């Protein structure tokens, strides 16, 4: 059985924005950048647990809304000199559908 | 792809910093080879003085150990002097025959000490003060000999003299000038310095010219003979009369030099394959000798070597500090003054304090401080920013912390602080942590300190202290050039240029603005996008569309995010007035949504804390009250006192005035938050004196005050105008705030805006010029005509996606 699940449509995520997916293991933030690429990270900043889904998205980075840590959307790691990493999830597009796989690591 | 070959000649601070910057940008573009004449890896030349003084060891001042070169894959040739460059074949040759080919060559050959052309200059025991070898010779001489003469009473000479004295030698400083450090100090300060150094045991021969160095029986130098015939005993002579760019090699290969290797703003020489940085360089006619500008050059040079191609070095302004423990002096700018200049001086010769500030018009142009340099960094900033200081002139001398910041126990002198003392109260950063980071990571600017330690990264009230610590650690190499002048790293433009472009070229969207101003990033960053969004909607109301994705979460969700990711909700209570029905709804909402905390705010309203994001829209609907904008760079509250309706002292109906002001300004976005207050009499119960606009009722009308602030630094509002009528209060307040909206930079509070442009500027445009006032007020009203209650809009379904989570 495939672990890929449709969570929303691309058009339901604002460009340079994010949506929160409520998952039993904890919230997951699904981001969309200006080039319509999608990324998924655990919705917790490695610094103080801030909800990354609420941050400002630019390039392939999100700035945490609590203290401005810059987290890479592809790798989940904080930009230097900060240190830390948010968990990544596998996510892809199938046409307009956003598919998330919480079983596989990204 | 085959790597390019980069060869660097010289292994000093500027050159190696360039490599570090380059490797950070592009780790694998080049195979790098470095030639260093000295047998040491890169060390911190600035700290030779503490080594000489016995406060640090050579090991302490190594910046890049040999392992670093190995880790970076750099081929390092130590103790090899490059003697020839063949620019046609693109090969460099060292004296021992080692050769290396290059695609790009980086010259970082530094400077050479100037040696006085006097008889005896080559005798044993005559040295300069430039590198580890010189320092070791001085230390060795101090163990064996007694008398030392230092020729040159400049920064380097005095540091050498102080060090030798601490090593037990009897030291005389021979100096040509009338007083010490004549390029850094005026006569009074120079004499104070001399007295203090004399008390420590140094001797001085001023206005003295060296005629010859005499040899003793052993062949070693034994005395310095002056022009007037005086002979000074000397077993060691240190020449510290200046440095000159080391251009020997560059000249020998035909590279254009003129008191330094001449480079353009990209640090490129006249041979496009050859770059040069550091003390060997002549940039726009100046050869810099302090580390901060050299690091700036390194950054720009690396940018071009990496092929990024946008960095530009445009020169630096310098300040001075002497690194002799226990002596504080600082100077910057034109501290001598003279015709057309005014001076403010404070002189306490017994207490050992002397301060001179030089003004021209209403600008500070120079400062010379001795004994108390705590405010040096602040004066330097005022000087470089060319801020008008007319209004702070009467307390300029007392320094920046005259009014006291909060968050670090009133400490305002970094030098006096204990290592363990907390500098940054927001992030818990101790002084020692900052000092260590500066030393170990080679930081030279406040921005870098902020990045690496977080100090001054939150509220910023300790920025002045951090600058002082930088200044103390780095001494003369401190560079206060504000690096944050540009909006952010995405652009070279500053806020003024961006505002001007948006207005003059009628730019109405963020992508359009970024394209027009050649932004380097595709969609900016979390710093520039909110600023651009504000500038656009403030300049072109009704035309530029608000971009929620470029707003900080609080302004996007119209509620304040809390540390646990919940939100707080503050409904508007006009003028701080509520009623039974509103209170009942608040109570019901609290129960229904299990809101954990209800609190009265400082702005006379009620805050519901701990609301889940998904509940926000329902909470707003049930409250049935408009947004209090407690989360925005916008109009916050209009605080009022009871006023003449109930209070036995009240002279005016301040409550109604406050309610009307709040309605009049509802929905106003601004560069930063805006708070108002209206008091009904001069007892000022609404605290109008610390608000952006404070109104105080008097028997004959209303007094308006502007630029107050009750935050990090308490700032008392300044008198702006006296008006007679209710309608005038609205018009004057609105016009002032519109001027602020049109001219201030994003995140600049009214007080800082007024510091920048001057209160007089605002008075002339709002108070003196009635037509302009009416026009400003009309523009404000026009802009506000597009604003609705954001909560009501969202209850109607706008931005729905913002408030709904998706199931997995």
Secondary structure blueprint with pairings:
The complex is a heterodimer of chains A (106) and B (808).
Chain A: E1 5-9, E2 17-22, E3 28-32, E4 38-42, E5 56-58, E6 61-63, E7 70-72, E8 88-94, E9 97-101
Antiparallel strand pairs in A: 1-9, 2-3, 3-4, 4-8, 5-6, 6-7, 8-9
Chain B: E1 4-9, H1 13-25, E2 30-36, H2 48-52, H3 66-71, E3 75-78, E4 82-86, E5 91-94, E6 99-101, E7 104-107, E8 111-113, E9 126-128, H4 132-144, E10 147-151, H5 155-166, E11 170-174, H6 187-200, E12 203-205, E13 210-215, E14 221-226, E15 231-233, E16 236-239, E17 243-245, H7 248-252, E18 261-263, E19 274-276, E20 281-283, H8 291-305, E21 319-321, E22 329-333, E23 342-348, E24 353-360, E25 363-370, H9 376-385, H10 393-396, E26 422-424, E27 429-430, H11 431-441, H12 446-453, H13 463-474, H14 495-504, H15 510-516, H16 528-539, H17 553-557, E28 560-561, E29 567-569, H18 580-592, E30 597-600, E31 606-611, H19 616-623, E32 635-640, H20 654-665, E33 674-679, E34 693-698, E35 701-706, E36 718-723, H21 726-743, H22 750-757, H23 759-768, H24 770-784, H25 790-795, H26 800-803, E37 806-807
Parallel strand pairs in B: 1-2, 1-7, 2-3, 7-19, 9-16, 10-11, 10-16, 11-12, 18-20, 32-33, 33-34
Antiparallel strand pairs in B: 4-5, 5-6, 8-17, 13-14, 14-15, 21-22, 22-25, 23-24, 24-25, 26-27, 28-29, 29-31, 30-31, 34-35, 35-36
Keywords (chain A): 2Fe-2S, Iron, Iron-sulfur, Metal-binding, Nitrate assimilation, Oxidoreductase
Domain Rieske (chain A): 5-100
Pfam family, one (chain A): Rieske
